[in-house]
């Protein structure tokens, strides 16, 4: 037990050695608004919130490059009575330079389904496929969410 606690303390100390402390100057009203937002989101401290904002911004900058490797989620709400829409989704997914990692199909009610596709590929390819799916007849709502990833998009 003592060894496990000591290992945890050493690991936490090593993590802290990788952290650079910085100072940030902000107007009072901006800081007050920021504190309110991060409190509502459940952040324990400003540092975590600032790190998340930086990560998010860096990811968005990477996604501006068309060849950026990314993981994406494509959310589609559609009328499942529309003729063969599921088959059209499958055809759009096959033969593309995008890998479907997982998909979820949920019946919302008597008329509507939610399809969530988790895909991996180049950001531009994911966006193009998602936009084609969203534009199909019978799709009522659609949303594409991308996150930039590091390295070769063909790796698992």
Shape, principal axes of CA atoms: elongated
The CATH architecture term of the largest domain is 2-Layer Sandwich
How far apart the termini lie comes to 36 Å
Strand content: 25-35%
The structural class is alpha+beta
Output the helix-strand order: HHHEHEEHE
Number of self-contained structural domains: 2
Low-confidence stretches: none
List the helices and strands and how they pair.
Blueprint: H1 2-17, H2 28-41, H3 46-63, E1 69-79, H4 85-93, E2 99-107, E3 112-122, H5 123-134, E4 139-148
Antiparallel strand pairs: 1-3, 1-4, 2-3
Could you explain how this protein is built, in words?
A four-stranded antiparallel β-sheet has the order 2-3-1-4. The protein is an alpha+beta fold and 156 residues long. The chain contains five helices and four strands. A hairpin with a 4-residue loop joins strand 2 and strand 3. The protein has two domains: 23-64, Met repressor-like (Arc Repressor Mutant), CATH 1.10.1220; 69-148, ACT-like. Chain A, domain 2 (Alpha-Beta Plaits, 2-Layer Sandwich).
Q: What's the short version?
A:
It contains 5 helices and 4 strands. By secondary structure, the protein is of the alpha+beta class.
Throw out a few tags for this protein:
single chain; 156 residues; alpha+beta; Arc Repressor Mutant; Alpha-Beta Plaits; four-stranded antiparallel sheet; elongated
């Amino acid at each position: 037990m003592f060894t496990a606690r000591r290992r945890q303390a050493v690991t936490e100390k090593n993590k802290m050695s990788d952290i650079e402390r910085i100072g940030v100057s902000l107007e009072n009203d901006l800081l007050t608004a920021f504190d309110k937002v991060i409190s509502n989101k459940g952040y324990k401290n400003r540092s975590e919130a600032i790190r998340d904002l930086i990560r998010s911004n860096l990811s968005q900058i990477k996604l501006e490059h068309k060849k950026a490797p990314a993981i994406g989620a494509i959310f589609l709400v559609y009328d499942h009575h529309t003729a063969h829409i599921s088959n059209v989704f499958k055809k759009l997914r096959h033969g593309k330079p995008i890998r479907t990692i997982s998909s979820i199909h949920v019946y919302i009610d008597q008329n509507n389904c939610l399809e969530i596709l988790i895909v991996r590929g180049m950001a531009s390819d994911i966006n193009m496929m998602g936009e084609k799916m969203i534009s199909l007849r019978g799709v009522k709502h659609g949303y594409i969410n991308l996150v930039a990833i590091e390295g070769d998009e063909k790796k698992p």
